[in-house]
Batch of 3 targets.
Target 1
Amino acid sequence: MINTIIFDLGAVLIDWNPRYMYRTLFSDETEMEKFLAEIVTSDWNEEQDGGRSLQDGTEHLVQKFPQHEQLIRAFYGRWEEMLGEAFHDTVEIFRHLKDSGRYKIYALTNWSAETFPVALERFDFLNWFDGIVVSGAEKMRKPTPDFYHILLNRYGVKPEESLFIDDNYRNILAAEKLGIQCIHFTSAEQLNKELVQINILSK
């Protein structure tokens, strides 16, 4: 019996995309994509999600690619411009789950501790959670098993009684190995359908 639901945030409930900001700095889309793929990479950003300071992460990259210093510093200097809107259809699913009163609902997110307060201020629904575990604050991130255990232990959650929703299949696989039931998120419509199928939501 599922009594706990755990949401990822980015790409599930909140839209975040560095292209929103970098399109103001690049006139050529191909050049921008090359910069995102080779310089300010996902792996580099995840180091900050894992607890490295924004300053240390930035200086590391500037030393490595000094010719791109201005563009690199813009990543966190203008980070708020990368933060899009909430995915309202998914937020509505969250609202229905919360209003049902049947579940404890938590968030487990890979997010820098330094930028997460911006999201907290912008998105009221983040206050609906019974608890949020932020990777940057814990200095570890998904898919590290210990990061999932922080949430499970802190809030007394049993893996077999929980459901985890994440858009990253790597993170889904890690949760499943811990005995957590999962839904690999691709859209709000798909999520709603799967929640109905397992009797978490009614039609």
Target 2
Amino acid sequence: MDVVSTQNKKIHPHKFTLWVGIGSIIMMFAALTSAYIVKGSLPGWTTVKIPTLFYYSTAVILISSVTMQAALKAFKERNMQLYRRLMTVTAILGVVFIVLQFVGFKQLWATGIRFTGSGAGQFLYIIFGLHALHVLGGIVALLVIFFRAYSAKIRNYNPVPVEVMSTYWHFVDVLWIYLFIFFLIKI
């Protein structure tokens, strides 16, 4: 009986790996936002206006978090039809987020904000661009789960991959909110 109760308290290796990865991502973005604060106090620092599309992308990523959570719930209830639809919507919203970010960056570029010089624009490109890469990685994982959901060959009701995906997706959502608010306050 002790073996069973000890076994149930262990974290799944995929979840553990995810949390280690999340920890390293947090440290990276903490370092980048700290560097922004330090550099922002130096002479010659220039600020930028955040593109309006970033507000829309914030709404999109928040909605995608809701659909991802609903998809996880549907999967656990074995409502596969609803699960598939919600995963489809989540993947589409993830792509819309990336497209809005790309167009927002194009707007920044059109206003003359480049990688050269000293200012907030360079940090926006780096920090928001790194976040977009993490979201893109999440979209790839979403697509893998999406195709598995529609596969006739796979009938595995193991919730771990969906739980891992859900946790990661919520993480990139929360990370975006942090970064967006950080830049709203600091710019």
Target 3
Amino acid sequence: MKVSLYVDDDLWRRFREAVLRARGTSRGLSDQVAELIEDALTQEAVARGFGLLGKSPTKILSAADIKPVSPRAKTSAGKVVREMRGGRAARIPG
């Protein structure tokens, strides 16, 4: 689908340069715009979901608002990583 947009020249120039720096080519402009649109729609869907739960989607959480939770099952990140590394080491031909 072809779409025409009217964007301030300076804003578009800065956006194009940012995409060029990030992706190494200006061919990524359309992809970047599509990603931004998808992000905007995702945020809208999340806000709608919060509304259905009766929560205010406009309140921005700070780090202090987020409370850590402990897993119900005992876990050990170190043990999991060692198991993963051990499995990988067993698959590598020596």
